[in-house]
Amino acid sequence: MTAFPALTDANIDDILAYIGAEAAKPAGGAKGADGATAGAGAKEEGGNSLLFGIITLILAIVAVILMQINSNLNKLAAEKEGHEQMEPVPFYKNKAYIALCIVLLFVVGGYFTIQGAIGLGRQQDYMPEQPIFYSHKVHAGINQINCLYCHSSAEKSKHAMIPSENVCMNCHKAITEYTGPDLFTAEGKKVNGTAEIQKLYDHIGWDKDAQRYTKPATPIEWTKIHSLPDHVYFNHSQHVSAGKVQCQTCHGEIQNMDEVKQFADLSMGWCINCHRTTKVQFAENDYFTIFEKLHKDFADKKIDSVTVEMLGGTECQKCHY
Amino acid sequence: MEQKKYWKGLEELHNTAAHQEVVKNEFKEELPFEESDSFLGATTPRRDFLKYLGFTTAAATIAASCDIPVKKAITYVNKPQEITPGVANYYASAYTVDGEYVPLVVKTREGRPIKVEGNELSAITGGSTTARVQGSVLALYDVARLRYPGINNGPDKIKLEDRVKELTFADLDKQVAAAIAGKPVVLLSSTILSPTTKKLIGEFLAKYPGSRHVTYDAVSYSGMLLANEASYGKRALPTYHFENAKVVVSLGADFLGTWLNPSEYSRQYGVGRKINQKSPEMSKHFHFESMMTLTGANADERYTHRPSEAGVVAQALLAALGGGISAPNIADARLKEGIAKAAKAIQANPGKTLVVSGSNDVNVQTLVNAINNLAGSNGTTIDWAVTSNYRQGIDADMVQLVNDMNAGSVGALLVYGANPAYDYFDAEKFKAGVKKVGVTVSFNDRYDETTQLCKYIVPDHHYLESWNDAEGRSGYFAFVQPTIAPLFKTRAFQSSLLNWSGNTTAWEDYLKNEWIAKLGSQEAWDKTLQDGVIEPAPGAALAGAAFTGDVASASAKISAPKTSGFELALYEKVAIGNGKEANNPWLQEMPDPITRATWDNYACISNKVAKTFKTELGDDYEINAEKEVLKITSKGKTVELPLLIVPGIHPETIAIAVGYGRGKKEFIGKAAGEVGVNAYPFVSFNGTTFDYFAPEAKIEATGATYEVGLTQTHNSYEGRPIIKETTLEEFIKNPKEVNHDRAHLFETFGENFRNDATLYHEHQYPGIKWGMSIDLNTCFGCGACVVACTAENNVSVVGKEQVIKAHEMHWLRIDRYFSGDENNPEVVFQPMLCQHCDNAPCENVCPVAATNHSSEGINQMAYNRCIGTRYCANNCPYKVRRFNWRDWNGADSFDDNLLDVADMNDALTRMVLNPDVVVRSRGTMEKCSFCVQRLQDAKLAAKKAGRPMKDGEARTACQQACATDAIVFGNVNDKESRIYKVRNEEQTDRLYYVLEETHTLPSINYLAKIRNKDAAPAAAAHGAEHKKEEAHH
């Protein structure tokens, strides 16, 4: 741990007090452009709409009661004056009610149908059971293995690539048993880590006692979690190498997941939102020298940052071809 | 200058009523219900209809919502170090089929070759390719390839396992070795360029006394080889240098399309056709031929003669140059004048002339050698220090072999890369001979006509699976290395020879040892494989050779031409060639540059002939796919072929393309099988060489008709001026004249035409603005770019039936326009692709904004947003948008929508698809994207490295394939880029935009064509008032 000799005790107390005060505030705002902001914003909005909903409901009930009172009073007044009264039409035969109900049904039903249709094929929170209980928490979290050690092509290629078995064996030739904290599946079943390592050995044909390969290797059939439609071109290296985006921005806190689940919904709206707000390293990367006007605006302080969108990052043919 | 009238076909020239009707109804197309007869006839009451509608909607919703398929991700067990999934690897290789020599770089993705490009390290081809080279990658995944070695049961059965009984290589080796032991063996092959293979063949044949190697070329050049032997003492082809020639005279040699090594000659010839605006000059090309070929179409002066007159033309030219022979009598005044003109041009340019001839007659070629000798070409445009190996077959050897076979004196016949049972002029005699040979072995890659007759079948690898070397010119080597593990149980031909000659070395080791011995080390060999070529240092002086030919006797042997009646000429099509690679859907669907027809061969005749024997064949004949079928009789053989009128063909010539009329689809493949008619039987043997024409021919109408898939009349411009051309003389005199209407346009609309002539806001291009320039002067229409585009962008193959309905999907087409006299027309080729207009008419009319504008100037097409209204196609003045009328690629969710005409959707064939480009589904519009995947890739590479993108890093597929750099592409905003310089400095006078007056503001400019001919008499110089030339951009 780095020491901070420049800070006095008073400074440190201030910092701690500040952290305490900030932590007490509701989440959101501080985290920048990642998913947390959007989530928190949505919650806040949800709170307001609930309030409005309750008020609307109360007002609607009051209005209905008042209408009922009004109608009863009218009826009484008419009776008192001796007018002949029509037999009241029950509300379920009242054409106005029926029409209103149909319109309401159409609007509400249509809304949910469309929402459902948009969600077709999306699989946020998808967490399938994998052939081997591979825990990202153990590898990337507890043991602090860099993501790019295994997913090495994420900075070179459009595919991040599930590592080949020989990469596993770089470590697991030596690490033959699991000794970490207990592992549990999402259903709460206990997992024997050493047995899972043995599954890897079975696939690759490694005899851990003899310390050599004894059987022919077979590939592991992982269940793919993050799937984009064919008509989307996504390039990991564009985001990792050029954009310097953290893995967690899109994949969530993968270092805390025993079993991986899909963090983002991978919808186009989600992509576009990020492209609208993410600032590129405009001044640092010489590639962008061709954007002369933006450089000038930047130098003239007309703009303080350049987003992906300003460079054309929300155009169709950046991802669809 | 008077606006020249350009026409795609005769009906357009004469503007017939039928043509007007077609133009009017261009977009009126009924929905394709004809496929299901019951659909329109069905009686569905309204209630039923509603029921079905409700049910299907509900069913589709339920079906779509319940089932998200579980996808598997299967990893490598041990990932090869050089493979990163998603990143392409490139390997040097070379295309050496039948003696063509094109060094290549092969792009592989995840171990699959998906695209070939020319190898720029080669001084011979310098990165240029041809349509056939571009298409060769698809041949690797041809489902008709033989999949294992075995014993042939004969072609009676359809299924491969019934036809060929599988054997292991070990068993087969034992059987063959026993069978050929002690017998004299004949190895029959097409031209082999590989020196190491030849050495190996020598070693193999030495084990079997009395053996020999016969080289047989389907389309032979032995006339040249023998004439050169007589003239210069070398049975070889010299190296031609078209780039040094100021005057090119071709006597029927289609050197831009099919003659010897077209990618090499196109590149050289292109050097002389480039115009430097500051000091304009260009080569002058005279062309004499019977059929209109690609090269003839590009000539400055073109003259036609009878096929039997080829010798006389050479005689006359030699006589005119003072070659010591008497001038023959030529009846045709125009031809006579042409020869005189050519002779004059040759005399005016001593040492800067090249005369080539496509004749296969020794005597004609001897006269041509004499002409070149007189013109001082030896040592200036013809190099005898370095010879070319492109063709080596001697016809008489082949005839002798067939005689020997029939006499029973051939012990064993090994066939490698040759298919005489199909392309030999007397195939029946060859077939009879094969039956008398004791042991027959075929190494051919498919169950072709010759393989059907052979007992043992040992299929060779495709070249992309092989190790090999090639010596194109003497001292110039290219290397072939595998880019994929063999797909089938095939074996290199050389491995078989090694095995059968008792050598246990593996072929790749044999080759490696050979080269390490020459190069000195493993490192040098590795470097060589990486480069792909070994070439001598540039700058070596060209050498001539002493001409010792007997002109008088050669001239005396030239037979007198016929003076009347029909004659038959055989020619090769640019895409199909001699027919060996015919089973290639990309090549079959590529429209022929001249006829613009796909998927067939036909009888090319002149309009005059068409009219004489069937008067109602009016001018509207071209808009109907139905063509009259003619019965053509020559040499006692008869074929029936549909006619096709080709303007510019000699009036009494019937031309038929070879390479068609292959056998059953099950044997040859779905694309080439049972397509067209075999024209090789019309070839004759004159005692020394094969003649590819027949002086006697008879044509009769049959009354039948046949549909030909013509793309000629699709996409009409209705006579709007889209081509600009002028003559060299005129251009030197008044360079602005060719663009005078452009100056006029700016005068009318004011200085700022770009902004002032529109209501729309101007798009901003803050970073990159892509632009392309196409030089009509160096575009020869060869079609390499069309096939390259098809390969790069997964462009669908639709088949002949759909081509007839104008449903072809090519993103890039090459429009061919005739102008002038219909008997001797001038030709212009214009590549037409999406112009990526800055003010695009298609964008405004899309109701869902599926096509819109990018900040880099690309007119982008979002396929998954497209709902298929086709408004954009209707509104596109360039007619470059293509609609998916059917599902060509299996991209639809519904299997029944698929229309697969040529096994393009077989799991094997689909390996050729470019994984970076999505396949489009039915009902969507598509078009040229400027190869956006390549642009994105180049940008990303620069971005990742944190450096500015260099000019030339982003190249489109068409640009890269072009032999002459007719296409320049780049960032117009970059003042250092080639495209910027072309537009603003180098080519300002010739630069124009197609239909500029419509203010579409295209991103593609064209450079006007210049013809090096005498100025047209009508050319009035009225450009003086249009002096004001605007600087556009």
From TrEMBL, chain B:
In Pfam terms, one family for this protein is Fer4_11
Coiled coil feature spans:
none
Q: Record's InterPro entries?
A: 4Fe4S_Fe-S-bd, TAT_var_transloc_signal_dom
Q: Where is the 4Fe-4S ferredoxin-type domain?
A: 770-800, 825-856, 857-886
Name the PANTHER family for this protein.
GLUTAMATE SYNTHASE [NADPH] SMALL CHAIN, GLUTAMATE SYNTHASE [NADPH] SMALL CHAIN-RELATED
Q: NCBIfam families, per this entry?
A: MoCo_extend_TAT
Q: What is this protein called?
A: TAT-variant-translocated molybdopterin oxidoreductase
Protein's organism: Chitinophaga chungangae
